[in-house]
């Protein structure tokens, strides 16, 4: 299995991310969110238009490729002393193959490399739905810890009930 990370840069890639989001969300979140909330969140946060807007605001999307096939994607936003992992989604057929670990290793390699100028980034932070026990377990296994609970009104009458989790950037070995 060959794993690669590729920045999302073209309209075609943005559309591929949108399609992957639709697959992942309808498959994975059906037991966590209502169909109406899934539809709302996909349109608001993962439509091609939303992705383009986020990219214009500094979010960086990456495609996660396995043998040149889109296996998932992640989205990052650098902050004052941490990088916010806004999205890390893996298609069902690629789960349980260590891709989340590989994606985080890729992040560590970027943010621990002094030549890239991210010396101020000390940790990775993310939000995860409190009912998403599978993802919480994965993140804890990868070294994240819960730092607080957070309820966010996302509009449309919906609220995300999250844990904020974080871990330190791992230095190059």
Describe the structure.
This protein is of the alpha+beta class and 173 residues long. Strands 1-2-3-4-5-7-6 form a seven-stranded mixed β-sheet, with helices on both faces. The longest helix has 18 residues, at 11-28. It has a single domain, classed as Aminopeptidase (3-Layer(aba) Sandwich), CATH 3.40.630.30. It is globular and about 45 Å long. 35% of the residues lie in helices and 35% in strands. The protein contains five helices and seven strands.
Largest sheet report = 7 strands, mixed
Strand content: 25-35%
Level-2 CATH architecture? 3-Layer(aba) Sandwich
Q: Structural class, judged by helices and strands?
A: alpha+beta
Which strands sit side by side, in order, in the main sheet? 1-2-3-4-5-7-6
Task: Bin the helical content.
Answer: 25-40%
- Shape annotation: globular
Helical stretch tally: 5
CATH superfamily: Gcn5-related N-acetyltransferase (GNAT)
CATH hierarchy, class:
Alpha Beta
Task: Considering the chains and any ligands shown, give keywords for the structure.
Aminopeptidase, 7-stranded mixed sheet, alpha+beta, 173 residues, 5 helices
Compact summary:
This protein has 173 residues and is an alpha+beta fold. The protein contains 5 helices and 7 strands; from the N terminus they run E-H-H-H-E-E-E-H-E-H-E-E. It has a 7-stranded mixed sheet, sandwiched between helices.
């Amino acid at each position: 299995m060959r794993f690669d990370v590729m920045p999302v840069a073209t309209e075609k890639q943005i559309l591929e991310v949108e399609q992957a989001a639709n697959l992942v969300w309808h498959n994975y979140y059906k037991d966590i969110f209502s169909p109406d909330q899934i539809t709302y969140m996909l349109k608001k946060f993962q439509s091609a238009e939303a992705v383009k807007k986020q990219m214009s605001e500094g979010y960086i999307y990456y495609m996660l490729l396995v043998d040149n096939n889109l296996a998932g994607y992640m989205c990052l936003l650098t902050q004052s002393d941490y990088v916010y992992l806004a999205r890390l989604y893996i298609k069902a057929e690629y789960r349980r193959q260590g891709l989340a670990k590989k994606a985080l290793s890729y992040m560590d390699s970027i943010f621990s490399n002094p030549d890239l100028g991210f010396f101020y980034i000390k940790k990775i932070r993310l939000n995860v739905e409190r009912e998403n026990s599978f993802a919480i377990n994965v993140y804890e296994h990868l070294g994240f810890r819960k730092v607080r609970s957070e309820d966010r009104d996302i509009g449309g009458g919906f609220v995300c009930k999250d844990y904020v989790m974080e871990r330190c950037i791992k230095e190059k070995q």
